[in-house]
Amino acid sequence: MSELRALLDAAPSLALVEISEARGSTPRETAAWMLVSPDATFGTIGGGRLEFMAIERAREMIGGKVATDLLDIPLGPEIGQCCGGRVKVDIALVDEALRNAIPRRVEAEEESEPHVLLFGGGHVGRALAEALALLPVKAAVIDTRPEALSGMPRDVAAHLAAVPEEFVRTAPPGSAFVVLTHDHALDFLIVAEALKRRDAAYVGMIGSRTKKATFRNWYLKEAGGSEADAARVVTPIGGETVRDKRPAVIAAMAAAEIMAALSG
Hints:
Elements: H1 2-10, E1 15-23, E2 33-36, E3 41-43, H2 49-64, E4 68-74, E5 86-93, H3 96-111, E6 115-119, H4 123-132, E7 138-143, E8 157-160, H5 165-170, E9 176-179, H6 184-195, E10 202-205, H7 209-221, H8 227-230, H9 247-263
Parallel strand pairs: 6-7, 6-9, 7-8, 9-10
Antiparallel strand pairs: 1-2, 1-5, 2-3, 4-5
Helix pairs in contact: 4-9
């Protein structure tokens, strides 16, 4: 939002570029949008040459004070692309009403973003927080240790909690829960609480196959859980295809896995 407000404050002349129709194979979906000024942009409609043409036309309209236009673009050899789809792009100069409406639109889009709760601010938790800060999610890190929460990315909430499981209970429907604390017993308690949420989009726990087996035994015998629920836990997070266990690599793989679950 800060980047958007900086552009709105700095650019007296702007054009809103928005995909109004997308058919076939296209780089972005209907309603994808961006802002264009004479020397800057915010957002993207994707597509390489498609976006270049839209930006070029938007700047022509700003220079000529043309209020609106519609581009109907086939994504084929005619423009040097091979997507095969077709898009219609609405372009409109930003008047005062639109300038005031755009921040509210972004706020509404951000409000609808899914929540991802990270339990644990250690090396992998911090790396995952940094990866999620770039994605369209509301990420939060919950930890029992104040020092583990310092220096988190600006767009990631940080919560100090004596009882982290409480954040599981109050999370919105469709949330993702990623458990990677410094304490295996605490991990198990949080995961067990997350499995009570039938509306969870993702329940993941950092660890190995051995840890997964240990959790399963504890969950079935001590927590009264079921085999079906135990099978819902993703461990290790990020899968086992990539063997590199550096925090940034685990975070990259886990972020992709979480996004796939949220979109599914």
